[in-house]
Amino acid sequence: MPDEDSGHILLIEDDAALRGVLAGNLERGGHRVIVAADGIAGLDQLKTPGLEVVLLDIGLPFVNGWRILESLDGRRQPSVIVISARGEEADKVRALDLGADDYLTKPFGAGELLARVRAVLRRVRPAEEKRQLVSCGDVVVDLGSRVVTKAGKEVRLSPTEYVLLAELARNAGRLMDQRVLLSRVWGPSYAGDRAYLRTFIKRLRHKLESDPAAPGVIVTVGRQGYRFGAPPEVDTERR
After folding, report:
1. Are 56 and 82 in contact (CB under 8 A)?
2. For the chain, which terminal residue's Cβ has fewer other Cβ atoms within 10 angstroms, N or C?
3. Between vectors from CA 165 to CA 160 and to CA 171, what angle results, nearest 5°?
4. Do 228 and 218 meet the contact criterion of CB atoms below 8 Å apart?
5. Contact, 196 vs 189, CB < 8 A?
């Protein structure tokens, strides 16, 4: 079992000085790091077995970060943390829509970088659970094997997509408050960042719902949060 505090990381960054600083910080944090200085080299390094996390700059030469994100569509691993000087909300949402798991705006400190990496690794390597099947319609979540199927076919989810779905499935039929979901999936510091939750809910609906515009698997409950499936039936008959 890998050390929970270390991971196998690919850093794709064209700024040589920043690349050296980031790689050094990650290595001092106990991580194994490989680097790529442009998009073409990054795409080639993505073939490296065992990668868990990619730190991806957007403004890369030859092949930019947007195209690299598109190339990763549907993979379970590695998880992607975008590192970018572009701090606009629209860029963050676009990155998350394309499959990124987190977005870190430059400049940032070593402590914040290492904390974000640790959080992603926890989602990549969750604690083992006993086999439990939770279903809604033709969607089945196996909390033991981390396999999700729709109409009998496996659905490929990123680690963060799965962790969010599993949190909802464990509490099937019950309202899960938005702040609670954000805190449990991403961490307490994300409790107010609803853009993350909206984007990942949209991604899950696209993969799981027969009609994402009329969801029945992941249901919005007012402005409070979300629910997996229908609420439990209440027997109102007087005895």
Report:
1. yes
2. C
3. 135
4. yes
5. no
Q: What is the pLDDT of residues 117-168, one digit of tens each?
A: 998 898 887 667 777 899 999 999 999 888 999 999 999 888 889 999 999 9
Letter for the amino acid at 63? V
Whose tokens are 């979300």? That residue is 226
232, amino acid identity: P
Q: Amino acid letter at 86?
A: R
Quickly count: other Cβ atoms within 10 Å of residue 224's Cβ: 13
SS (H, E, C) 61-130: CCCCHHHHHHHCCCCCCCEEEEEECCCCHHHHHHHHHCCCCEEEECCCCHHHHHHHHHHHHHHHCCCCCC
Place of tokens 């860029």: 91
CB 172 within 8 A of CB 145: no
Tokens of 233: 């039936």
Q: Please give the model's pTM, rounded to 2 decimal places.
A: 0.81
- Per-residue pLDDT tens digits for 177-191: 999 999 999 888 888
Q: In the numeric block, which tokens belong to residue 225?
A: 């949060």
Q: Compute the CA torsion angle 209, 213, 218, 224 (nearest 10 deg).
A: 170
**Start-to-end CA span in the chain (Å):** 55
pLDDT band with cut points at 50, 70 and 90 for residue 1: very low
From CA 67, how far away is CA 45, in angstroms rounded? 15
